[in-house]
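Thread: quick sanity check before group meeting

JM: Hey all, I'm pulling together slides for Thursday and realized we never actually wrote out the predicted structure for the chain we discussed last week. Dropping the sequence here so it's in one place. If anyone has concerns about the input, flag it before I start.
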Amino acid sequence: MSEPSVMNMNVDPAKCPFCGSPEVEYPTPRTVYSCGTSDYDGRPESAMQSETCKERVLVKPIYSTQFEKKFGIKEEDCKNQYELWYFKTLLSLLEDGTVKDDRTNTGTRSIPFHTYQHDLRESYPLMKSRYLNPLNPIKEMIWMLSGSSNVKPLQEMGVPFWNCFADENGELGPVYGVQWRHWKTPDGEEVDQIQYVLDLLENEPTSRRMVVSCWNPSFIPVAKTAPKDNPKLGKMSLTACHFSFVLTATPMNFGDRLNAFKHTHTSAHANLFPISGKGWSEHAEEVMDRHNVPKFYLDLSFIMRSNDFILGNPANLNEYAALCLMFAQQRNMVARYVNYTGIDVHVYSDHITGARDQIDYAKKHPEIFTDKPAQVYLSVDKPETIFDYNADHFLVQGYSKENTGPVIRFPIAV
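JM (edit): ok, ran it. Output follows.
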């Protein structure tokens, strides 16, 4: 870890910036302090500290944020940006969250309106402070894309997320995927919102109407009715938490396309050089077009009216990152940002003990923040449609039970 700069300290130029010793007379244009530290031009950042000062001060980094004080790591040294943001938010929830009642009568600590942006070009949002099967949220997203209202296909994939909400036949009512794929119109027809967005990405990529919603008031569960009983009433077993997402395609500039070309077609890229003539950039564009180099970045923004930060958030970031990758691959774009907005972000009261255990683990294993983060890639074998993906299309790198924290069990608030 690098030594902290004294530039961030509040210093008195008449005193040693490291230990506070007073300035002494010296017959040169430099400042010297009684401790032996010298400052050549009056700027404390250029000081040459004595061994005494270095021993007393510099070996102790200066931590300024709540996260840095808790974990003893400078935020600037963290490579795992999702884990950094997650723990900063978790500390805020535990220490500053408002105590609130909730539908399940469990009790929460809550903060209103929270956002996060993750750059998929740099890493994938996976949590390493506790082990979570990285493919389970992706399988859930694939299940949602199928338009199913039954938990059995999800159970066959080994994903237990919805078990406690289904009725005896496995039915969940018109939940996420049903609304995405079979939105009912007033005249009795259906709209496939996923296909609608795919068509816009192909034909009008700069459209601002690429919105998918599952907030359908007609199917919101009946208050005070058990989730398992709502499907019998024609309602969702559980009100949609992540109720809408929006896709945004942004044209890539010439330099970004050229850089993407360099990473995917190294030899062809090298043949473009040296640069010669006025028509070089036009020639390069033609070559990149022939090699099908993407022309657009794709961003996905999703909104959660309610977010269980312990059980929900790690899965939500994972599955929407996967969805962005799938849309991007299907339309030959570069997946860029996944943007999260949480309206009521909360920790349930019976999750607090486990959350503190997770914090204790992270304090003992700073490498989860500072090591190279895990990554998830899509196979180059692109399925024919977005509805044909399965878990085998996703390749996980740098994530296993050996390099993550323990499994921590948390109860589900039903």
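AS: nice. The longest strand covers residues 334-348. Confidence is low (pLDDT under 50) at residues 1-9, 25-34, 39-60.
JM: adding both to the slides.
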